[in-house]
Amino acid sequence: MQIYTFLFPWSNILFTSVFMKGLASLYICIFNLIFMLRKIFFLALYLIIHQANAFAQNGIISFENTRAVLGSISEEEFPVKYKFEYIVAGSAPVKISKVDTDCACTVSNFSTDAVEPGKKGFVEVIFSPYKAGPFEKSFTVIAENAVPQKTELVIEGFIEPFSLNTSIDFPFVNKENLRFRNKYVFLGNITNQGIIRRNVEIYNDNDSSYILADSISGPDYIEIGFSNGFELPARQASSISLFYNPELKNDFGEVTDSVMLYRINEEEEIISAFTIVIKASIQQHFSEGFSESELGTFPKLVLSDTIINLGNISLSEENDKIVEFVISNSGETELEIQKIVTNYGCEIYKIDKRTIEPFDFTNLKIAVKDIGKKGTQDRSVLIYCNDPNNTVKQLTIKLNDRE
Description:
- The protein has 403 residues and is an alpha+beta fold.
- The chain has four domains: 24-57; 60-159, Immunoglobulins (Immunoglobulin-like, Sandwich); 166-283, Immunoglobulins (Immunoglobulin-like, Sandwich), CATH 2.60.40; 292-401, Sandwich (Immunoglobulin-like).
- It is 16% helix and 50% strand.
- The chain has five helices and 28 strands.
- It has helices at residues 2-7, 11-57, 166-169, 246-249, 292-295, and strands at residues 59-63, 67-73, 80-90, 95-101, 106-110, 120-127, 133-144, 146-147, 150-159, 172-173, 178-180, 185-191, 196-204, 210-217, 222-225, 230-232, 236-244, 253-264, 270-283, 301-303, 307-313, 321-329, 335-342, 346-351, 355-356, 360-368, 375-385, 392-401.
- It is extended and about 90 Å long.
- Residues 1-8 have low confidence and may be disordered.
């Protein structure tokens, strides 16, 4: 060691310097840690004191239970009611300001006056079921000067199947005293391929049976499925099957059809009975799941404009405004304009052609007519075609008809 020190006389000085720097850094870290712990301590102490003051200044609302399982409920027990009770603790009274519900089928009653500490209050919830099956309804209680300020209450249970209420379940009645669930038979959005079937439910509100004949009057693309002498029993619901063939209909867009049914009277004569009205929206059918390469083989609709703004104009019976759209086909096969539907205040003035060859175009002219209305207006035109990406396209014409 003496030799080492003799050879390197500055080594002790270097070692002492490094040691002192490390010790100083350690002292600084310990000091920072103590300072941080002190800050955390005082912050926690402040929060505890603040919370204690809040509890001291507010009442504490405590519900006996916040969820009620009501089990199975029948129609005779409607509306469903349940009363939640709570007690107030702390040093201040509590007042419920409102109770928010999760749907329009629920309402509530509650203690509107402030409830003093040591006293009880209530929240009564009321649920009017609209369908059978399981249910869960929540209510959010908001209280003033209370801890907690919000409390969620829940009722749950099971509504047993409803018995038939003819005036509600079959609200549409005809002159034959037969009731229907809907005024029309809605087929919805369908394509021009395949046969659509719908069951039409009928309630016979007569005191005697109603006998249907197997004769109908209507288009050949509508059929009714039942045998001759089909009976609709008195005071009972029955159903008949309706079959609709949109391919035979050979139309597109919003369509309305009707079919007349006949009955057999007491003299066994076949006489007219009632009419069923059918509504549908028909679009071009395309096979599902075609590839990108197959997409290139279809026609492609291209429009010069989809919105045209005419600005300020003056319309009259003698002064229609003609608006022109250019319809092009950028696909590889023929584009068929299957149907053009104009809304009120628009008419087709002229279309050069409805079959557009690849990379060709046609002009569509729309007459905008006076409808006796002034101010800002929108007119629309629907184009139905065989482009799989644009089977229906809307054109809009905006205008401001001045005085």
